Amino acid sequence: MAGLLTKFGHYTHAVVRGIPASLATEALRSSQADVDLDRAHREHAEYVAVLRTRLGLEVVELPADESLPDCVFVEDAAVVCGDTALVTRPGAESRRAETEAMKDALRKLGLNVVEMTDENATLDGGDVLFTGQEFFVGLSKRTNQRGAEILADAFKDYAVSTVSVTEGLHLKSFCSMGGPGLILIGSSEHAQKALKIMQQMSDHRYEKLTVPDDLAANCVYMNLPDKGHVLLHSTADMFPESFKVLEKLQDYTLIPLSNSEKMKVDGALTCCSVLINKTANI
Amino acid sequence: MTTESGPESAEKQQQQQEEKTKGASQTSASQTSSPQKQPEQLPAAVGHSTPAHKQQDPSEEDLVSHQSSTSRLSRSPLRGAKKVKIMPCKIALLDGTEYTVNVEKRARGQVLFDKVCDHLNLLEKDYFGITYRDVENQKNWLDPCKEMKKQIRTGPWNFAFNVKFYPPDPSQLSEDITRYYLCLQLRDDVVSGRLPCSFATHTVLGSYTVQSELGDYDPEELGTDYISELRFAPNQTKELEEKVMEMHKTYKGMTPAEAEIHFLENAKKLSMYGVDLHHARDSEGVEIMLGVCASGLLIYRDRLRINRFAWPKILKISYKRNNFYIKIRPGEFEQFESTIGFKLPNHRAAKRLWKVCVEHHTFFRLVSPEVPPKKFLSLGSKFRYSGRTQAQTRRASSQIIRPAPLFERSTSKRYNMSRSLDGAPISENHESLMKDAGVVVKGDSIITTVTTEKEEERSEQEDQAQAEVPTEEAQSTEAATVRPDTKTDSEQTDFAFDGDMTPTESELDEDSEMRTQDSSTPAEVAKHHTNISELKRSFLETGSDSPGPNEWDRRLPYSPTHSPKPDDDPMIEPLDPQDTKDEQPAEEPQDEPKATEAAGFLVKYAVTDASHTSSGPHGISLSTTMDDDVFADGTLREAAEEAKTPDSLASERSLARLSPGSVRHEVSKAISDKRGRLIILREAEGRGDAEGRGDAEETSALNEKNQTGNAIVGEKLGKEVKQNGSVKIQSPKLEIKSVLNDIRGVESPKKAMAFWITEEVEAEEKSEHPVPVATEEAAAVATAEVVAVAAAVAVASEGDVAVTTGADVVVARTTDGEVKEDESGRGETTQQQESKASAREVLDEEATSVVQIATTTLAVSTLGIVSASKTSPVVEDEIAVATESKPEVESTSPTTVENDASAKETPVVHTETKTITYEAAEAETNGDADPGVLLSAQTITSETTSTTTTTHITKTVKGGVSETRIEKRIVITGDADIDHDEALAQAIKEAKEQHPDMSVTKVVVHKETEITPEDGED
């Protein structure tokens, strides 16, 4: 709802999904690192706990599906904005089935679910950056123009601009929203270039916060009642330099989360949840 | 075309009639115009420029009235002049109602806008505007600075009141009533789908709409179904209505104004809020949309924004033909400025986009509007946003001290009804006008297809032109150069944002010659046409004495009669078309002078031309006019003159002066008329070269000219000349009546004026006979020149419409004068004419370099409108060039052709030629347009039993943009039975169909009627 937008980052619900054992061996990945499945489970449990207990969100936890090794990365399966949820058509064919459970969950939450049925369209939620005022869609290995068009159709209130992602898996592999009008961006060349493009394409002005590590730029921002600005970020252990940058954020509640194992299969913090603001839905 | 020209054409007719009746169209124009809103300009201009004419008018009128059957017509103009045409305007208001208000036909857009705003009780009106649908059903903003009729052209006078600049922050508007209208616009935007939004947003906006219009939710009063009577979305569902009602219930106590503020707060966030979309294609042909908004230019592919250029990033915006360009400031990743081009469906679309960009940039980015460039010579459109900028309007709004006006909010039930915001049924008036228009056209028509638009800019030029005019006042010469307003369609629009201005190129440029000059060129164009035909002839005939009629002749119904008899003594008769009366009188004197004088005239013309060219002072229009001819001919002529003996020179000069004066005169008139067109013609030819061909060419040229007027005669003459060498050429009297209607004159609503000048110069020359060429006519180079210039101006009100379509140019050019210097027997001849002739020939046939030249010259003039007739300066010393120019006063009656001056001679073939030019485009006046480089030119001719179509295609490149100009000359030969109007309409229609991407910018209609030679002497 364009006008009724509550504060950017206000969420009431989150959809997450369990980690299948197949993640360790079969999940898609761009590196060859071995995944410690137990540790991955622990990290994910902490992630869910933060959402549910510390932040007070109503968390819908979908069961893992062994046939879908990447299913924990629910972000790619749906894009939710306001009362509308776009169930995507992931670029990786092995992940297409992930949307089924997501679709059902979103419907149960009362969202207006839009499905991407066009077989020429692909879109991963990880390529979708919603700034509160508009969408940027990374055209990547996983997301194409058609997918972006469908997203634009689903969210008519907003401008949808495309940004080409030349390196990295997703657009959000090197950026995310760090607050209203604040873009967290990695320092790599392609990340900086993408930011420039986004700034040029937008009618709005965005502040940027550049962190040394691209992966550290992927954080989960929320603005919750009684809690103010909340930022879930990778731990200082993982990205010490980037943490120093994030530490400078004033009036933020910084919540470090260890995400080392999922990161081995290209999973960032935003990947593991779909955040929903049910109060905005009438 | 036909449709477009409808209303205007009718006016034209009137104008023509008026012109005919009144020799001095100017006066009439002034009269007519004066009542209208632009009294200032025209009257003054007229007064200065055409005093002589005015004086003459009466006499001529009388003559006309007596002689011509159409005498009654002469009166009509007068009546018309007193009348102020009132047009009922229907304006679709934002609340769905229609407001009808009467506006003077020549009123500018501002008048209507102000009336509507008054009606709406709206003070913060700078955000709004009035739209109308053009022929292509595209929405255009009514330019407040230009006459409505010139913008609307043929369409019905139906408008819509709309938001033009969507304030990014509506809360900053001062008055609730302003917000209310903005809300109404947005509701329409939403319901129509122009402003896409989500279901949730539809709900929210709908709920505020309900609150605003119906007040608090009250089931008892409203019932439960009240909501379904309102429209909130393109596809309204029951679910939506229920949601709206749910929200509506929560707004108890909210005032309408508050609800509107909430509505706007939500609407303004929509990504497409205030984005004006235009279809286009990128450099690779991919369909995209260009969106103009407060912050800059957005590029969409489907629904996706693929690029955005904020105003500060844009250095320049321009368009050429159907291309739209933006020059981008180098960014971090680039070192150099880059220019990005987009293809729009057509030129109009490109221009429309450009204008919208100019306006948005100015409104939102600048503190105050840019002052339109003064350009005499510079390229580029003068179009600039002239209203207040947002900053200014905010400042002004803060001064509003009136108590908040009470106003009633209507219901959005209106959305249930089909709205006709834009189009409206054609009123009877229009239809009738159209019919009339149709009637006007006759004879062969030349349709020039060009992609350009002229329209709006003319006015400016016109103004300038007018200013200039005074200087020109020339004498009453007959030379009629009509100066079209120079506005061209081409518009070069360069827009320099943020300081950089660059001249953009306009389509016209490329079209170059023709185009560019549209304004300047009408004459030129005409010339071209004529030239082409002439060239062909010359080609065909060249060298050959073959008396047989050539194609053209055959086509000409009356050719036989027209054809002058070889035997006739060379005479130069300036015939003035009826319209010319005013002018004619002046001319006559000149004409009357015998051959020598005639020669002088010719020379004079040349001189004048030269002077024009040289003298920039005249103003754009003048310069433009001069363009082609002037350049080429002028210089040549001058040279020739120099060559001549002093004596001859002197004499010539004296004569020349006259002519120049006349030329100027006309020009000035034309200018003054503004809409006036130029007409030009002229030709002179002198050919004194020993070489027969020179003569032949000349003659051919003449012939061609004549064709327009009386081609035949010319040819004959030419032939004779050739044969005889030193033979005398009789210059048949050519009467050319050309009526030019300028449709264009944007601002000058006044009636068009027509000037005709016919000059015939016959010079016989034998270069070979150095001797007494001078002494004898025979020796003399015969140049026959007929200059017909008709500037008809547009009928004030009507003309506009037509403007787009046609411009007329009648040009008969023959220029060249050869000068022989016999003085004492010199047998020198300068062959200007030849060169020209040859050039033309080349052009026609080959369209080669020659063409280029011509084009270039034209291009140069860019706007140039009328090329002054160039007479062939055949300068033969006093020799026997007998030129007799008779200004004919006859307005309508063909019979009255007279050669008073030429009395000596003999057989005169009288032809009545009417030339009507409809110009759509106007050239902008800059004389300096680049000529462009000619890429190719070809001429194709096809014939049927009654029609001959000659297509001349010229491709030029100018400033990196290529332009294609197609000229079609269609000669319809036949008896009176032929429905010329229909034929023309058909021709235009076909031309449009064949070249959908192009627009018809000029339509020149020459109607030639044989007149039985009567002795009518004026």
Describe this structure in words.
- The complex is a heterodimer of chains A (282) and B (1018).
- Chain A is built from seven helices and 15 strands.
- In chain A, the strands form five sheets. A three-stranded mixed β-sheet of chain A has the order 2-1-15, sandwiched between helices. A three-stranded mixed β-sheet of chain A has the order 3-4-5, covered by helices on one side. A three-stranded mixed β-sheet of chain A has the order 6-7-8, with helices on both faces.
- Chain A is globular and about 40 Å long.
- The N terminus of chain A is likely disordered.
- In chain B, 40% of the residues lie in helices and 16% in strands.
- Chain B has 31 helices and 27 strands.
- In chain B, the strands form seven sheets. Chain B has a seven-stranded mixed β-sheet with strand order 16-23-27-13-26-25-24, with helices on both faces. Chain B has a five-stranded mixed β-sheet with strand order 2-1-5-3-4. Chain B has a four-stranded antiparallel β-sheet with strand order 6-7-8-9.
- In chain B, β24 and β25 form a beta hairpin.
- Chain B is globular and about 75 Å long.
- At the A-B interface, α4, β8 and α5 of A face α9, α11, α12 and β9 of B.
